[in-house]
Each structure stands twice: as structure tokens, then as C-alpha cells.
Design goal:
By secondary structure, the chain is an alpha+beta fold. Helices cover about 30% and strands about 25% of the residues. The protein has helices at about 15-25, 30-40, 85-95, 110-115, 130-135, and strands spanning about 5-10, 45-50, 55-60, 65-75, 100-105. Strands 1-2-3-4-5 form a 5-stranded mixed beta sheet. A hairpin with a 4-residue loop joins strand 3 and strand 4.
Amino acid sequence: MKDYDWQYGSDGVDFDELCRLYRAAPLGDNTAAELATVYGNSRYACFVYADGALVGAGRALADGVDCAYIGHVAVHPTHQGQGLGAEIVRRLADQARDHKKIILYANPGTEAFYGRLGFLPMNTAMAIWRDPDRAVEAGLLRREGSRLPSG
């Protein structure tokens, strides 16, 4: 893997640059202020730089004992496919290793990728989303009584 500079914690991070990374990844349309809030409220965060430019990021919410949630892992398209996303997840999981469980949300179709990193599918996860119709349409949620797609 290429040489990268790693930063842990969000002190000094340019959240406008992070916002641009999220759009390029593509990982959504969060504003810089929203990203500053979610990263500021996360126990663990890492930011990855190549030649001074932000090319990867991720965070983990954690309570210090029971549960850590890894989310918002983004890698710039020019750095995808080189193992950087996997390394971000590994480093966040390592920081949270003393928790009883580490959870992450995965887009449909990424189960094998996260499986190679040691994550197993959950049978008990439930969620309330602000826009459940959009989440159902994206394949992230299913309505009660519906079946998981076979595959």
C-alpha cells in the first residue's frame, strides 16, 4: 500500500475538504457542519492524507465498554481499490478492540468485503430512519413481514 499520513482525532481537520471527499467517494451530501458534529462526537476518528490532500476518513462512535459503531468510511476514488478503506476499518476496529462488540452498517453487496475483515452478519439489527422509504428503496431496510433477498 502507498505511503499515507494518518491523523487520529479531528483537531485541525478541514471539514470543507472532508465534505468534498464524501461527495467524491460518493458517501453522501453531508455539510461540513454536519461532518464536524458527527466526527466531534465520535470517540475514534482517523483521517488519511496523500501529499497533503485528504484521501480517506472514518470514525467510530463508542461508549468505552459495550459497543462501538464504525461509520462514515470514505476513500477518494483515485485511492480506492488499494486497500485503504480496509486499513481505515482495521485501524478503527483496533482502537475499539476493548469493546464487547463492534458494529458497522454495510451497503448491500459489501458483506464479503467486511467479512474478510472479521465482521459477521447480524440477525437482530433493527433501525428507525428519518426517511425509511428511501432506506427501503436503497435496500438498507425492509418492511416488517418482508423477506431478505435470496442470494
